[in-house]
Amino acid sequence: MTDLSDFVALSLLPIWTWLAVAERLRAGDTPADILRQIADSRWPDQPDRVPTIRAGAADVLARAGAHQIAPIAWSDASYPVALTTIVDPPPVLWTRGDVAALSTPSVAIVGARAASPYGLSVAEHLAADLAGSGVTVVSGLARGVDSAAHRGALAGRGLTVAVLGCGADVVYPPEHGALARDIERHGAIVSEFVPGTPPLPPFFPQRNRIISGLSRAVVVIEAGEKSGSLITARCALEQGRDVLAVPGNVLSGRNRGAHGLLRDGAKIVETADDILEELGMPASGGTGSAPDAQSTADGQVAKPDPILACLTPGEPSDLDAIAERSGLSPARLLPRLFELEMRGVVARVGGGRFVRVDRTC
User: Fold this and answer.
1) What is the pLDDT of residue 299?
2) Number of CB atoms found within 10 A of residue 85's CB
3) Could you give the CA distance from residue 328 to residue 73 in angstroms, rounded to a whole number?
4) What is the pLDDT of residues 156-172, one digit of tens each?
5) Residue 350: is its pLDDT beyond 60?
6) Any idea of the CA torsion for 138, 139, 141, 146, to the nearest 10 degrees?
7) Count of Cβ atoms closer than 10 Å to residue 145 Cβ
8) Helix (H, G, I), strand (E, B) or coil at 190
9) Average pLDDT of the chain to the nearest whole number
10) CA separation, residue 269 to residues 141, 207, 220, 221, 276 (Å)
11) Is the pLDDT confidence value at 303 over 60?
12) Which of 24, 102, 247, 299 is the most buried (most CB within 10 A)?
């Protein structure tokens, strides 16, 4: 509990310290040491700063418990590996619902709050089809495209994740209370902000990097030239994720941002198949062949799996190390690691690391 409390204390530091926090966590420093180092560096004339922050962390944990919100620290094996790859991951994620939904293959769908009926329909249909293919739909619970995407995923009997710009115990906009409850039952509500945080305007662009960070790709629908969805798209590009866009009416002006993405090379999306094709996601699962090798069409054994060849049983490796050994970018590596995890030959451990599971006996 002490370690968790220290991670929560780190999450109470200003967000501009989180890059330094992430760097030191990856270097192996303990959260208690990082808290002390940052306090000594930033507030040398305030010796009571650390005790004050720790007291605040205890209050936050008590509030989370009262509202049945689960904190996931950066060191926890259930912390989403995809999120550990961004430069400034939050020290703690606050969640309601199914924590496992945060580590499934995911696609974000974002767009205009004042969306047209066309935009809402496209978002709902894409989300339903993706959910039906086993892809988790991530969005921000906002009015317009976001809520349509969540509803579509629920209608497709799949999982959906809502990333909030406020505490996980605060529903915004308030009329989405029933939708939030449905998402909690069939996915997860997640926030980097401690419970009780109000929905202030600066928090929404900040949380967009979490939407893209949890996802393998971001699909933009009806984004204007100054849309917040373009912030999510920019975050996705910086994080090595794919960016796709749905073309729309050229007369309304509400599609200029999305069309700008298309001019810059984003793939056009007309159906969910376009998204699945771009990400190399097959519609059906693979066969139960041996974990180290892949079978060819004529039944012969092909070369060993290159990702497993980069891992040693019992020795955890972080994503950067595996990427360096395999020659794959983190964005391309993560889907393969998730697939191997589903097959039971790779396991996730704390701090966003993976270990090979030795199944021989």
Assistant:
1) 41
2) 22
3) 27
4) 999 999 999 999 999 99
5) yes
6) -130
7) 33
8) strand
9) 85
10) 22, 24, 9, 9, 10
11) no
12) 102
Q: What is the DSSP string of 320-347?
A: HHHHHHH---HHHHHHHHHHHHHTTSEE
| Nearest 10 degrees: Cα torsion 20, 317, 33, 14 | 30
**Which amino acid is residue 187, in one-letter code?**
G
The number of residues making up the chain comes to 361
Assign a CATH topology to domain 293-356: Arc Repressor Mutant, subunit A (1.10.10)
**Strand 293-295 with 301-304, pairing:** antiparallel
Return the amino acid letter for 169.
D
Contact 344, 314 (CB under 8 A): no
142 CB burial (10 A radius; 0-12, 13-18, 19+): buried
Q: Is the pLDDT of residue 285 over 50?
A: no
163 bridge partner residues: 190
Comparing C-alpha atoms, which of 141, 197, 194 is closest to residue 164? 141
- Cα–Cα–Cα angle for 319, 348, 14, rounded to 5 degrees: 65
Maximum average pLDDT range among 127-131, 293-297, 340-344, 351-355: 127-131
> Confidence class of residue 318 from pLDDT cuts 50, 70 and 90?
confident
Residue 74 in contact with residue 110, Cβ under 8 Å?
Answer: no
40-72: pLDDT as tens digits: 888 888 888 899 999 999 999 999 999 999 999
Return the bridge partners of 160, or none. 137, 187
Token digits for 152? 């579509």
Single-letter amino acid, residue 9? A
As annotated, the residues of the chain forming the CATH 3.40.50.450 domain(s) are 99-279
d(CA 161, CA 115): 20
- In the chain, residues under CATH classification 1.10.10.10 are 293-356
Q: What CATH number was assigned to the domain covering residues 99-279?
A: 3.40.50.450
Q: Extract the tokens encoding 280.
A: 């190399």
- Cβ burial of 320 (10 Å; 0-12, 13-18, 19+) is middle
| Cis peptide preceding 173, ω within 30 of 0 | yes
Q: At residue 351, what is the residue type?
A: G
Strands annotated E in the chain: 70-73, 92-97, 106-111, 136-139, 160-163, 187-191, 217-221, 242-246, 267-268, 293-295, 301-304, 317-318, 346-349, 353-356
